[in-house]
Amino acid sequence: MKKILILSFAFLFFLGFTSCNQDEIETYQNTDNIYFSLSVFPTLINGSLITTDSTGFSFALDKPAIVDRIYKIPIRVQGKLSDVDRKVKVAIDSKSTAIEGTHFKLPDNIVIGAGKAVDTIEVKVYRTADMKTNSFLLILNLEENESFATNMKSKVINPLTNKNMSYISYKLTFDDKLSQPPGWFASFLGVFTAKKFFLMCDLMHLDPAMFNQKLGSPGLSVADIQYYQNFMKRYLADQKAQGNIIYEVDGKEMIFP
């Protein structure tokens, strides 16, 4: 009898547990949320893992032949996956200073692909002449549609500053302003100029973006910098001996210390 009672209680418990699970599954009918992944899942920026709702880049260290760049912004689903592509509604915020069609282009169709929890918005940014003197801002806002809600709004990052970070708005800044990069060792390479910098990179087949790292990084040790210096000094001396003096844009003779 005691064994029968124990089995009965176990059976009733199992039924109750199963019923609860079925109720939970059946009552989940909310629309899935869409949000910018980088605001929740950290990414590696300048050696640190951080969450962010904004980023930026510059064409300044790109070779002149580079006329555009594709920048991928990850978006993520909070909810269930789908076996079909789902459209994502993205609006350009009125506070943006970048002009669509002039400075950037968005894809004709932005979707979360079938079976994916994460996808990307591929922003094509054009390298324009006005970026030499101006920085431009593009703000993208996720909006509700038939596939996704936007119930994830924002969170407070620092309670002392009360700075908010958005889950559904993302800021992208870009320009083409060239300034002395952190990897330029002036003691060996002299005063930084764009013409000197790109000439050195072209002659020695160096990636200009390499100089966006700190001194001591790969390719930027003291020995590396000394080699670059000596190579360029020999090149300029050889050109001068042949009657081809290399000048800076301002008309002064190009020199390396």
Question: What report would you give on this structure?
Answer:
It is built from 4 helices and 14 strands. It is an alpha+beta fold and 257 residues long. The protein folds into 3 domains: 1-29; 33-175, hypothetical protein (bacova_03559) (Immunoglobulin-like, Sandwich); 186-241, no CATH class. The strands form 5 sheets. Strands 1-5-10-8 form a 4-stranded antiparallel sheet, with no helix packed on it. β2 and β3 (48-50) form a beta hairpin. It is elongated.
Distance, first to last CA: 100 Å
Q: What is the molecular shape?
A: elongated
Q: Give Rg in angstroms.
A: 28 Å
Could you describe the largest sheet, including whether it forms a barrel? 4 strands, antiparallel
Domain count: the total is: 3
Given this structure, which CATH class of the largest domain is correct?
Mainly Beta
Question: How confident is the prediction overall: mean pLDDT?
Answer: 86
Strand content: 25-35%
Determine the CATH topology of the largest domain. Immunoglobulin-like
CATH superfamily placement of the largest domain: hypothetical protein (bacova_03559)
Q: Report the strand count.
A: 14
Q: What is the tally of helical segments? A: 4
Give the class from helix and strand content and strand pairing.
Answer: alpha+beta
Please state the second-level CATH architecture of the largest domain: Sandwich
Q: Write down the secondary-structure element order.
A: HEEEEEEEEEEEEEEHHH
Strand order of the largest sheet: 1-5-10-8
User: What percent of the residues sit in helical stretches (DSSP H or I)?
Assistant: 10-25%
Low-pLDDT segments = 1-28
